[in-house]
Design brief:
heterodimer; A: 255 residues; alpha/beta; six-stranded mixed sheet; 9 helices; B: 691 residues; mainly alpha; D-Maltodextrin-Binding Protein, domain 2; four-stranded mixed sheet; 25 helices
């Protein structure tokens, strides 16, 4: 389980020439994602999704607020310890092009404090699940987009994390590759993992998510199961729900 | 720190760096091939020149009213050259083979109507005209310095004139019936080089090697430094590595170790490559002439120190280059940032070529220059263990300082996710900056680094050239540089410099404290001087030189100016910014240590460090810089006055001039501690015991 309490992140932005404005990229967001649950974060560009996910995975320090994860009865708040249990993937987490996938995974095994056998076992398991046998030893820079994305997933799998945080994992992928990722998330949910992810694809969110959190300008504007959100707005698909909610906020979508 | 994590990260960095062809070529292949290529190139050029010279003929025309006397001499010289060129078995004069590589051709002077025209048209290379003047022949040799052949011809002719003159002198002496040898050589003298062949070899190597090493280390660390910092950001892997359960410090340390290791490998390759060429040349020379034999074993200690110096310098230069490249977002940007650094380092590295630079404790602390001078001195067998230690320790200390700074930068989100300026407002447009507050820590460290560099180099030059007023100038550096930055970043002057009014009790307490401190410092200094007698004599020398001016001048420059300038930097900008971000005790200790280091002397470090900490404490307690300024003034003024009136003060307080006995030391220490405590009590009474 991952929990965020009153997260706030303030950036100072240069507005025009002589003005500096403090902007709350994430403005007092609290959320909880339980075990065996997939929660989708939806929102227009610049809504604060990436900042929120970065803080949740401890890449960024919140201006105020707390992030913690719970494994069994144990609550963990220490940055480094939390990172140990999180698999984070975004478009900015590129892989070392000059290493092979196998070398990368072996290195990660050590850094996550796994034994050599443990790592090797995990690698061959991942290799089979993601069918990566034929390019495991090629340099990552030589791989195709789909192969690279699979290598990226392998990267966040290797330490068998309890919590997955994915920032737009299917962006720019072909149907086959994104279907593979969606299948992967479903399987992990069945294993009782906690999954939080952001996307722009409404159909995908509707199909996959147990709950959806809509954010706009750093704030949660609505939260619930896809069905609840539809009832709330009286619309019959998520795309319209999204548009309706943003409109209710009284601000035109920049998207 | 977890060594397993560091080891894995270093392994990853090294794999990553070594799989990049560009980096490998730049840092390994180029240096290794460079020296042989330079050598082959030089050899080719030399052989081209010498083969070109063999065919050279010089055409000389003579028009002299000496009845052909000099012409005859020329003919004779020409003949000598020819016999030597064809068959030198029988030649009686043993000349260098080089001199036979040219030929003289005498041109009939009548065929030349205008010698200037002929010279310009290169029909002749030299034109000699001779007239009788005041009873003797005066010859003028016309030539063109802009034409190589003409210059050569002129110097050949001059040589022949020398010989001609000598012959004539001898003739005259004999005519006068005197002894030639006695007149021409009334005394005998000869220079005898007592330097061992190893020493001469060392001095030659010592002037070139340091520069070569510094440049090769710089080149060797440059690319890995860029690759592991800006390169990682450009390739987008930084965010990936941040998702790992690894601390920033582990990350920085492993990157730093990687860069330093590659730097060392590259430097070693350079040395091997250079050494190989040197050995090859030595072998060739050995065959040609009976070159002196060298006892290479004598160089072993120098070599060991050189290797230590290389290690220390590679730590230093890796840390410095990484500090620069960490600010860049891309490879290209990093390259731009590193160019000025390269120029500065190379410029300072030239110091090895300058003869007669004294290698003292101050120089031993100057980055880059210290490594050059250390290697140079080791190679001429001038070994001073204290200096070796200072050089090695200061390099490691600078590296640690830089790495600490770097891990601070890497912690900041501005550099990880933002525009890469790491809270350095200094590099932002002034119009974008908000008013108020105190400088950011990154700015403070940057200002300090910049001020230190300027102070070390500029200040030293000023002090050496202008004595007392040079000290004043270097104080202005301390004041001016930070002030510019504070102004540029629009900081609140009052807050940044602690320009608040203090209560009277603040001054009174401060006064008691400083008098107490003065006694304590005297005892501590005596102890330090006992421990390090060499560096102590150094200080007294410098100090007495500064006392040349009048008392008022000395007080102004040595007491008033530092009380203002040093306080505004250390207890102002530095302390006021630190106390906002660090724990108060950390800030006080840190400023104390920096203040101690700034005095650049082994003996002064502890006393001035203590003083710095006490001044910080007072500034913190009173919330104002003014009591600290007053204390600083009192302390420095006391020293000046004491050294100005040794006799008068000596009658009352002989302890200032004589060596302290143990009992006196203890009494002085006791008095100092009591006075200091009174000061403390006054401060605490009036400002509260603890905030």
């Amino acid at each position: 389980m991952i929990k965020a309490e009153h997260l706030l992140k303030t950036f100072t932005k240069n507005e025009k020439k002589n003005k500096k404005i403090d902007i709350n990229a994430v403005d007092d967001i609290s959320l909880t994602v339980g075990e065996g649950e997939i929660v989708g974060i939806l929102g227009p560009n610049g809504a604060g999704k990436t900042t929120l996910l970065r803080m949740l995975s401890k890449l960024m320090k919140p201006t105020s607020g707390l992030v913690s994860i719970k494994i069994g009865e144990e609550e963990i708040t220490d940055d480094i310890e939390v990172k140990r249990h999180i698999g984070y993937l975004s478009n900015n987490t590129k892989l070392y092009g000059r290493l092979s996938t196998r070398e990368l995974l072996q290195m990660l095994g050590v850094l996550y404090g796994m034994s050599e056998e443990e790592t090797e076992k995990k690698i061959s398991e991942i290799c089979e699940v993601l069918s990566m046998e034929n390019f495991m030893d090629n340099r990552i820079e030589k791989l195709s987009t789909g192969q690279t994305q699979r290598a990226s997933i392998a990267r966040c799998l290797v330490h068998n994390p309890q919590v997955y945080i994915f920032d737009e994992p299917t962006l720019g992928l072909d149907i086959l590759s994104s279907a593979a990722i969606i299948e992967f998330m479903k399987k992990e949910r069945e294993k009782g993992k906690t999954i939080l992810y952001s996307t722009h694809y409404m159909e995908e969110a509707e199909y996959l998510c147990d709950r959806i959190i809509m954010i706009h300008q750093g704030k949660i504007i609505s939260e619930g199961t896809p069905t609840e959100l539809k009832q709330q707005t009286g619309k019959d698909n998520l795309r319209d729900v999204f548009a309706e909610l943003i409109e209710r906020e009284g601000i035109a979508d920049e998207h | 720190m977890n060594t397993k994590i560091i080891k894995t990260l270093v392994k990853k960095e090294i794999l990553d760096v070594f799989r990049d062809k560009k980096t490998v070529i730049m840092m390994l292949v180029v240096p290794v091939l460079l020296y042989p290529l330079i050598f082959i190139g030089a050899m080719t050029v030399v052989s081209m020149i010498s083969s070109g010279m063999e065919k050279q003929t010089y055409r000389v025309a003579v028009d002299a009213q000496d009845e052909g006397a000099f012409l005859q001499k020329l003919e004779q010289a020409k003949e000598e050259l020819q016999t030597q060129g064809s068959d030198d078995e029988s030649s009686e004069a043993e000349r260098d083979t080089e001199e036979a590589t040219y030929e003289l051709v005498l041109i009939d002077a009548d065929s030349i109507s205008d010698y200037e025209e002929a010279l310009n048209a290169e029909e002749i290379d030299a034109y000699i005209s001779g007239q009788m003047q005041d009873g003797r022949m005066q010859y003028d040799i016309y030539y063109l310095s802009s034409v190589t052949n003409s210059s050569y011809a002129k110097s050949i002719v001059m040589d022949i004139f020398d010989e001609y003159k000598e012959e004539m002198t001898k003739e005259k002496i004999i005519e006068a019936g005197l002894d030639v040898h006695e007149i021409l050589e009334p005394v005998g003298y000869e220079g005898e080089d007592i330097a061992s062949s190893e020493q001469s070899l060392g001095s030659i190597i010592g002037s070139i090697l340091p520069f070569m090493l510094i440049v090769s280390l710089l080149m060797g660390t440059m690319y890995p430094a860029i690759d592991t910092t800006a390169g990682e950001r450009e390739r987008g892997t930084l965010e990936t590595i941040l998702t790992l359960p690894v601390t920033n410090r582990q990350l920085i340390v492993s990157k730093f170790l990687t860069v330093a290791m590659i730097g060392i490998i590259s430097a070693m390759l350079n040395i091997i490559s250079m050494g190989g060429i040197a050995f090859y040349m030595y072998q060739i020379m050995d065959l040609q002439s009976d070159a002196q034999a060298f006892d290479l074993m004598q160089f072993v200690p120098a070599l060991l120190v050189c290797i230590l110096a290389i290690l220390a310098f590679s730590l230093f230069i890796s840390a410095v280059t990484m500090c620069v490249t960490a600010f860049a977002k891309t490879y290209k940007e990093a390259n731009n940032y590193i160019t000025p650094l390269m120029l500065v380092v190379m410029f300072v590295g030239y110091i090895g070529f300058i003869p007669n630079i004294e290698f003292n404790q101050t120089m031993a602390m100057m980055p880059v220059a210290n490594i050059c001078l250390l290697i140079k001195n080791m190679l001429i067998f001038k070994i001073d263990y204290a200096l070796i230690a200072i050089v090695l320790i200061s390099n490691v200390a600078y590296a640690l300082f830089a790495i600490l700074f770097l891990s601070k930068i890497y912690d900041s989100e501005a550099i990880l996710f933002g525009d890469g300026k790491a809270g350095m407002q200094l590099f932002e447009k002034r119009s974008n900056l908000k008013k108020g507050g105190v400088p950011s820590m990154s700015d403070v460290w940057f200002v300090f680094a910049l001020t230190t560099m300027l102070f070390l180099y500029g200040g030293t030059i000023l002090q050496v050239n202008y004595g007392l007023w040079g000290v004043f100038g270097s104080q202005m550096i301390l004041l001016g540089v930070p002030l510019l930055v504070v102004w540029y970043t629009k900081k609140d002057m009052k807050q940044t410099y602690g320009l608040q009014k203090a209560k009277a009790a603040g001054y009174v307490g401060g006064f008691f404290q400083i008098i107490g401190m003065f006694c304590i410092m005297l005892v501590v200094s005596t102890l330090m001087i006992k421990l390090f007698p060499d560096s102590a004599s150094n200080i007294t020398n410098v100090f007495s030189e500064l006392m040349d001016g009048s008392l008022v001048e000395s007080l102004l420059v040595i007491a008033v100016t530092p009380a203002i300038c040093e306080e505004l930097l250390f207890r102002g900008v530095m302390f006021q910014s630190m106390k906002k971000r660090y724990r108060i005790s950390t800030a006080i200790i840190l400023v104390g240590v920096i203040f101690g280091l700034y005095h650049m002397s082994l003996v002064k470090f502890i006393p001035t460090g203590l003083l710095g900490a006490v001044l910080c404490y007072t500034a913190y307690k009173t919330g104002s810089i003014y009591p600290a300024m007053m204390m600083h003034f009192v302390n420095n003024a006391l020293s000046v006055v004491i050294s100005y009136f040794p006799e008068q003060i000596g009658k009352v307080f002989p302890i200032f001039y004589e060596e302290l006995k143990l009992s006196e030391s203890l009494i002085l220490l006791g008095v100092g501690l009591i006075l200091f405590s009174i000061g403390q009590i006054i401060l605490r009474r009036s400002y509260g015991s603890n905030k």
